[in-house]
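call fold(seq) -> tokens
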Amino acid sequence: MRPGALALCVLALASCSAPPPAPPAPPAPPAPHALTWREVTLPAAGAAVQDVAFCGDHWLAVGGLPTGPAAWRSTDGTAWTAVRLAPVSFYGRQSTISTVACQGADAVAVGAASGGAHGNPRASTWRSRPDGSWLEYEPAFTQFGGQDSVGVGAAASTAGPPAAWAIVGNWLGPDGSPGPALWHSADGAAFTRTLVAPGSSARATDVAPLPGGGWLVAGEAYGATLTGASWTSRDGGTTWTPVPVGGPLALVTPYGSGTLGVGPAGSWWYDGTAWQKRGGFGDANGWRFLAISAAPAGGALSVVTAAAGTTCHLWTTRDGGATWREATMPVSLPVTAQTVAATAVSGDTVLMATGDGTRARLWLTTA
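ret:
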């Protein structure tokens, strides 16, 4: 063999055994859009705000004080006035209000306090009255609690008159397996519980009103893999129709002429007939979605907060979820079991309540 041939063979062997070049690193995600947040003085010393809402011409904030449940009203998101509460039960006087829904001056809220031999949540509802005060309605213990209860979640109101109200949760079905449930009411005082999909191996995560009336319950189904699930009712919550969706849904909100939903696989748009895939948030596996809110009819802004890893993040969209843009949070918020990042939107204004179980704060920004 000629020396040159030998050299070529050596080079060939070396080139064959050399590792391939590393693929280029993925581009770094863009820096979050910087929002200018303004901290708002809490409505009261020691207030723990759990939820906020925009109600046409005013804001609501609900939660608790060291002395018991509390709610506040504001026309500008800055100056707050306490709502006069009228509790009627032992646990109602000790409860924290966790969720509120409103339609104009009307409001319905849900609160709970732990109690009884097993320390289970004792839930009750609150309903606004013409004089502006809120009256507690104490249900039978088995309405929201008892051995068949799995959990009670968010409240919702219809988007327009006539007003109707709903509370989403999960309940054991006749076969003993948990499944989605909805408590619905025409007057906000007396609620009827309906099993949405008994025996479906699914759970409900949120509820939103449908344009023109009715409800959409969103959730996820368990099987070989975690999949999406949703159901609609056009008769006020009595009968339900399953609507397939391509990924698990964590939160839903009315948006324009349909419903916007988000989950670990991204966002989805329900047009009244079917779900359509929209944009995503990157790798959202393992995220705990905390809140979604959208501007009332005619507005374009929608915001989502989520606990991702060890901190909370905020995302905004103006095109119905087709594209999402991360934005700065008002404060670095650690992820704990007590983390709160509740939002409400009016036009371009965002009100956010934050909390980590030790300190609650309120913020305003223009997005």
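The longest strand covers residues 106-115.
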